[in-house]
Amino acid sequence: MKINFRKLSNKLLQMIFPVVCPYCGCVIMPDEEACESCMKKLSVSCTVTDIQNSLCVSPFEYDGIFKKAVLNLKFHNKPFYAEAMSVSLCKALKKEFPDEKPEIITFVPAVRKSIRKRGYNQSELLANYLSLRLDVPCCGLLVKVKDNLIQHDLSAQQRKLNVRDAFELNPSFDVRDKSILIVDDIVTTGSTLHECVEVLRKHGADKVLCASYAATPL
User: Fold this and answer.
1) In the prediction, which pLDDT does 151 show?
2) Is the pTM above the cut of 0.85?
3) CB of 151 within 8 A of CB of 162?
4) How far apart are CA 161 and CA 153, in angstroms?
């Protein structure tokens, strides 16, 4: 009998750290995106944004309970919110790109200072859970080569300059002719994903799609 240790370890983690609703914090089943009460507040509002000729799908607008969920995940030590949030991401991808299945899932690298402070990269968490749901390997294809300022404090023009040449391909990977999905938590101006897409294309990636949990209108 062949044992899938990756899925087994995920089930063990679920037993130790139950999946919770990212909007109220109550325990839910592993394949649910919210509790019964909060599900009534979820509106289907998939946004598809064009970033450097790569499409980015986001299940929700960055507002209300969705903004609160991202802020809790990102700044208030709620890494366990990522599992339920990945369900919404998975649904959005299947709805908007039903015929697309990437060969590799990757994520936007975080500033080292942010990882030291919170102990994790929220985009990497979302990407790993999405990897399990789509049965596609998740790899850290991109590395941060410039410790730039935190984006949310900057204007649109400052964000664009702030992330310029901030990323490079991880030399351990070859992305030539590969179909890749980049995952981020939120999209505001699209500057960060734009840079990430450019790096992957520069190194020969065949097709690059993007996904974020939430997006602000561009």
Assistant:
1) 52
2) yes
3) yes
4) 13
